[in-house]
Amino acid sequence: MHEFRKEVITMKRARWLMSVGLVVSQTVLLGCNPDPPPIPFAQSGERYHDKIDFARLEHESPLMPADLMKVTPDNLKGATQEQVDQIYARLTAGPIPDGVYDGQMFFPKGSSERARLAEIVGGGIKGFFVDLKAATLEHIGEFIWKGKVFYRGEGVLRNRIEDLRILKPIVGPNVEKIQKLDVDGKDAWLLFPAKLYCGQSLLDGRRESVIIDYAFTDDLPGYRDMPDMLAGREGLEIRDEIRMVRPGFYLGRAYIKKVFALNFTLYNKAVADKESSSFVGSGTVNEDCWVGSQRMTAMANKTGNQHARLMETQ
């Protein structure tokens, strides 16, 4: 029975991905990448031993609040993956978010991740991904994924889906029974639940990130076997992690089968408008996760150096 169920799941997953690809391939999203965020980056080569150590990077160039205010969801798309990684490694988790966040998936400039996704997903459909080229998860996200809804008090998250046409082949006829939320006058169906907790980053183990875990979610209220299981341990085995760029704005990393797949951003304008000015002034936020031992030292050193330079000019 288990093998039969697994085969059915694989077939449904393949049919769903094919239906997504057919829609996406008709609407390829084109556009020029913007310039990367105007903040300090370290030079780094393509080979592993040419990469800069994150501890050294943060010691020499910690990101101050003024730097982080220059980072936006749009200009991150103009950064290389190495630059995105360097930003992420210099962030802390910040507070676990609460409420509705708008989301965007993105592949960085010059990235080869599109082709590598085929190898990650596997399951007999990798050739389909390679052939479509433009039908990547980045573009799929533009159609069906609009962000996340955090239930901080419950330690739970759900994903916002605004167009169920692509999901109908696997959701089935009872679409109207899926939980809905009104976001800016539009219906958002809440699918793919996940559990929230602080845990070790798969990129930077010096401090924790907020983990969005889809592995064991079948005990959550409102869980639907299809399509929710596609993100879980019997599907793509998705695991996300996020860190705060500034209040209301988070940078995320998505992993499929424990392999890095793509970047995404989460943004809540109301939180950003309310809390950004105090963040710039104080340079601190409430931290729900362990920030590591280096963060405060690096920030203090940079603040002290700036103060010393200011005194020298007076």
Question: Element order, helices and strands?
Answer: HHHHEHHHEEHEEEHEEEHH
- Helix percentage: 25-40%
Structural class of the secondary elements?
alpha+beta
For the CA atoms, what is the radius of gyration? 20 Å
Summarize the main sheet: 8 strands, antiparallel, barrel
Q: Percent of residues in beta strands? A: 15-25%
State the distance separating the first and last CA atoms. Answer: 79 Å
Outline type: globular
Question: What descriptors fit this protein?
Answer:
314 residues; alpha+beta; 11 helices; globular; disordered C terminus
Could you characterize what this model shows?
The protein has 314 residues and is an alpha+beta fold. The protein has one domain (2-312). It contains 11 helices and 9 strands. The protein has helices at 2-24, 54-60, 65-68, 81-89, 113-121, 126-132, 137-144, 168-171, 225-228, 269-282, 294-312; strands spanning 99-106, 145-151, 156-161, 180-183, 186-200, 208-213, 238-246, 249-256, 259-267. It has an 8-stranded antiparallel barrel. Strand 7 and strand 8 form a beta hairpin. The longest helix is centred in the N-terminal third of the chain and has 23 residues, at 2-24. Residues 18-31, 123-138 and 306-314 have low confidence and may be disordered.
